[in-house]
């Protein structure tokens, strides 16, 4: 009788593992995993581009994730433009398409202003952590409160003592 290294136990174990893997790949969870992996790759691309465009390696990952999510929510084609922009890293702005230049502007604007958009529907993501304050060397600190009532800054200041 020839020696056959595969025992029934090993065959049964391999069949069970194969069935479990097939069930996972065909289950409704597989597309969710694929979408999560795609979103993670897009975020990594966004952070790489952000570091390159801003020239800063100390960007906050949580702020970056929030900015990326907000940019993608506002513009469904933003993820595609990230890929195009990444493929042209290191080229002069004149070598970029209009869409890639727009994506670069959106990324820089989001990081430096701490918000996405510029119209009345703009979304504030992280105002105190915006790079516009870090660009001043940490000297300027955004206020978390307001002196007086709303609009009091518009009143003409009084002279003398009351």
List how many beta strands DSSP finds. 2
What is the end-to-end distance? 113 Å
Shape: elongated
- In the predicted model, the low-confidence regions spanning at least 5 consecutive residues are none
- The strand order across the widest sheet is 1-2
Instruction: Evaluate the radius of gyration.
Output: 26 Å
Largest β sheet strand count, sense and barrel closure: 2 strands, antiparallel
The arrangement of helices and strands along the chain is HHHHHEEH
Structural class: mainly alpha
Short description:
With 162 residues, the protein is mainly α. The chain has helices spanning 8-26, 29-54, 61-74, 78-87, 98-113, 131-134, and strands at residues 115-116, 123-124.
Structural summary, described in words:
By secondary structure, the protein is mainly α. It has 6 helices and 2 strands; from the N terminus they run αααααββα. The protein has helices at 8-26, 29-54, 61-74, 78-87, 98-113, 131-134; strands spanning 115-116, 123-124. Strands 1-2 form a two-stranded antiparallel ribbon. The longest helix is centred in the N-terminal third of the chain and has 26 residues, at 29-54. The mean pLDDT is 77.
Any key phrases for this structure?
162 residues, two-stranded antiparallel sheet, 2% strand
Please specify the SSE layout and strand pairing.
Blueprint: H1 8-26, H2 29-54, H3 61-74, H4 78-87, H5 98-113, E1 115-116, E2 123-124, H6 131-134
Antiparallel strand pairs: 1-2
Helix pairs in contact: 2-3, 2-4, 2-5, 4-5
């Amino acid at each position: 009788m020839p020696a056959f290294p595969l025992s029934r136990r090993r065959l049964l174990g391999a069949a069970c593992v194969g069935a479990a893997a097939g069930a996972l790949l065909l289950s409704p969870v597989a597309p969710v995993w694929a979408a999560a992996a795609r979103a993670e790759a897009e975020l990594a691309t966004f952070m790489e581009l952000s570091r390159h465009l801003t020239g800063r390696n100390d960007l906050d990952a949580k702020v970056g994730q929030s900015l990326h999510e907000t940019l993608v929510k506002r513009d469904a084609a933003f993820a595609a433009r990230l890929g195009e922009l990444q493929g042209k890293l290191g080229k002069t702005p004149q070598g970029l398409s209009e869409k890639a230049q727009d994506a670069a502007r959106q990324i820089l604007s989001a990081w430096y202003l701490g918000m996405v958009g510029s119209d009345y529907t703009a979304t504030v993501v992280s105002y105190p952590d915006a790079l516009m304050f870090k660009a001043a060397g940490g000297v300027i600190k955004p206020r978390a409160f307001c002196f007086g009532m709303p609009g009091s800054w518009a009143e003409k200041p009084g002279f003398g003592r009351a």
